User: What shape does this take?
Amino acid sequence: MTGCHRIRWGRMSTTSVVFSRATGRDVRVRFCPSPTGTPHVGLIRTALFNWAVARHHGGAFVFRIEDTDAARDSEQSYAQLVDALSWLGLDWDEGVGVGGPHEPYRQSERGALYLEVIDKLKAAGHVYESYSTAEEIDARNEGSGRPKQHGYDNFDRTLSTQQRAEFRAEGREPALRLRIPDELDLSFTDLVRGDISYPAGGTTDFVVVRPNGAPLYTLVNPVDDALMGITHVLRGEDLLPSTPRQIALYHALIDIGVTTFVPRFGHLPYVMGEGNKKLSKRDPESNLFLHRERGFIPEGLLNYLALLGWGFSADRDVFSREEFFTAFEVSSVNPNPARFDHKKAEAINGAHIRALSAADFTGRLVPYLESAGIVSTPITAAQEAVLAEAAPLVQERVSVLSEASTMLAFLFVDASGLSYEDGVIAALPAGAPAVLTAAHAALDRMPGREWRHDRIEEALRGALVDGLGLTPRAAFGPVRTAISGRRVSPPLFESLQILGKPESLARLDRLMAQFGSPHPLG
RNA sequence: GGCCCCAUCGUUUAGUGGCCUAGGACACCGCCCUCUCACGGCGGCGGCGCGGGUUCGAAUCCCGCUGGGGUCACCA
Assistant: This one.
């Protein structure tokens, strides 16, 4: 599988350039975002797949920050990136925060390293001074009948010493471009797409250093990968067209002794939003933290993200983190774009929520209930006791944790504070007052020590179903509304048990009062 | 426009020449379970973009077309 290209290196030498053939523990992958904005699910999916490759092979996962754009980078964004990876449990072996043999791991702190490489590149003739401005390049293309988008024409490659001196005399400062040998074939075998061919001569020289001396992403990204010994580069599909340029740079880096191999590349499919457009940063669904706020648990979101372009098996799509990286193979990543489907995502998340132990689930609910104002912040011991009983009632009813707030709210207020869902009272059947009266009587008759859901059910069934000859639906509907204020609620008898007898009777009283019924048992 | 990538149910994915009258999941629709809603169970709806080849045989291989996307920065 390892590609090996024999290439002629211009007039300098004939070199045998090999792509990495690292396997097992020698595999080194990286995640190298720029800290601009909130973590995007597509970006995190890329991190996830890289992490999975490292864990699958027992290799290393390197976390590097590409903060070379002072205008757009922010410390807040950096913190969010760390937060996102940590939350999902994507731990890194080397990189920011944990250190490692290739420190520093923030590009903003690696300037001296780049300068050194640039000097070597210059000395070996791999880069040259380019004075062309964008306007001049366009003008030359138009003048010679080429489309404007043709791009750079390698004009400055052949500038004489004299011409360079003249430009300098005009006060112009040169950018540095990589000289790509005309006869260099830049094809490669993509880890997810197979052979991709970029014939010799199809790639023009590109800028690697700004006139002010600042190295660009085009240089710094491959240089750091080379310096850090990265063997497999998994990144977004949008970077596919820049791969031939990077391979050309690698040839130069090998020539000057910075590294000895070219990493293998794998281009991951886009994560799409609505329509045929890539999920944009503006789209709320792209925001990882919004999903967390909605109540995705890390296990669930990780599982769903893994499904974006990959499949666990033919008949299963719910799996654990360990099962994921054990089964993951880059070669089985699907090359076509995946659409982010929040319905499916929530279904997967719901499956993970149901798999939680009751205690674990209960604990994870707390922050959501606190921020929704359902319980105090921090939660009181009394509220915690109610929650411990109530949480299991909703565990199989939610697919995201935030849903529990509306389901559980009625348990954390008293009868007078209970709010009724819109239209719920109007929707009650004509016989509702009679049902409520009978229910009240039956419950009131129960000794307090028997106030358990099974006995409550017995009492209510006896009075309403057997006594009034109602269907269970007609019998319990009005009671449910009185107790929860809603049409749909957690299991009724268990809810009554949690509320206790006095509170339950108070709620029945309150709803009966709405109908002007006489107070039972005066 | 040049170059590059992609193409199986609505969505996602299985399928690497015969196991496919194309399998699973989500969504949707029925039914069952049932105190509501869920969960769970059962069933249904629904797909290989088109045209040529290769082959005894093609969703699978080749070519073309069509469609979609990306990229052509002194941004990353």
The CA atoms of residues 115 and 215 of chain A lie 8 Å apart.
